Amino acid sequence: GENVEQHPSTLSVQEGDSAVIKCTYSDSASNYFPWYKQELGKGPQLIIDIRSNVGEKKDQRIAVTLNKTAKHFSLHITETQPEDSAVYFCAAYAGGTSYGKLTFGQGTILTVHP
Amino acid sequence: ETGVTQTPRHLVMGMTNKKSLKCEQHLGHNAMYWYKQSAKKPLELMFVYNFKEQTENNSVPSRFSPECPNSSHLFLHLHTLQPEDSALYLCASSQDIANEKLFFGSGTQLSVL
User: Fold this and answer.
1) How far apart are CA A95 and CA A8, in angstroms?
2) Given CB 3.0 to 4.6 Å as the disulfide criterion, which of A20, B48, B78, B107 pairs with B90?
3) Is B66 on the interface with A (CB under 8 A)?
4) pLDDT truncated to tens, each residue of chain B (113 aa)?
5) How many residue pairs bridge chain A and chain B with CB atoms within 8 Å of each other?
């Protein structure tokens, strides 16, 4: 089955700096890669996603890149703000016989210091 | 608000108790999921329902029993739990199981004493 590794487990940055979180996956059939943000006391919320036919996607201050050959994808947050502080999860989805199965990474606790 | 509501938000139960977690989605989705979130571990998929039919049981112990009476409601019945079952239980929904975009509720924080 799919295995997703996420690094780092914790990340501390100053407000205005950039933050990068990286994930690798094992199943070459995976074709959809979402990123979720979980704030304290809430469930994870989808913030950006990318499909395997695209190498990069951007939405305002956040962007995701995908390297299919190397089987890794990354989340980039620019001009970080204190409200970006949360736990971020990457995930991979293969579809096919894996319908309904998103495999999540272990999560990254991002802290943005004012 | 994500359109997925879970109750209760917090639950403390003894190992001999029987309790139920409830999830309701107002998004018109047809697939619903239970996930377990433990500290320092990835989210673990427990059960998947598509159009009220269970399509996945991810080797979950029988002390967890799901129920999906219709596409909008999902329950997780709990009995004779163990302390290691203490975790945040998250419900999610999607248009159907072929649609990968999940919408999560805020979860039920369960403590088993």
Assistant:
1) 27
2) B107
3) no
4) 779 999 999 999 988 889 999 999 999 999 999 999 998 788 999 999 999 998 888 889 999 999 999 999 999 999 999 999 999 999 999 998 888 899 999 999 999 99
5) 61
